[in-house]
Amino acid sequence: MRLTAFTDYTLRTLIYLAQHSDRLVTIQEIAELHGISKSHLTKVVHQLGISHKVETIRGRHGGLQLNLPPEEINIGEVVRNTESDFHMAECFDRHNNTCTYAGACILKGVLSSATAAYLSVLDAVTLADLVTPKNRTGKIQVLPLSKARRKTDAT
User: Fold this and answer.
1) What domains appear along the chain, each with residue ranges and CATH number?
2) Which of 2, 57, 63, 134 has the fewest Cβ atoms nearer than 10 Å?
3) Helix, strand, coil % (nearest 5) of the chain?
């Protein structure tokens, strides 16, 4: 399974905002850091604003910031809200399914279970789990995925 660019950019934006919670951040700043189109990132930020995850402040000294504490932003929810579907195979799409095995396929159940497990792991992670405070050098440190996994295994 692969996340869309939209979801990827959404997660990167949230992580950056959590890392810089002490100030307003601009779309331009995030776009330049990640090499993302500013217009595409504007769409991401717009959706984050609609979902009330991000507050946008207009004007010359405007920018954006998290609207919720990182502990209240669930990564599973973010991914569900940004992905258009979780169709692992053609048979998941009722309207366009031409698979001859669709009526008695065991694979669809296996793939459904795998998708549910994938989302379950993401449901156990918050934005706060993905970000740590600045380390001694002043650089932002992002937790490796293994630490986030350990936390979900403990719950």
Assistant:
1) 5-154 (1.10.10.10)
2) 2
3) 55, 10, 35
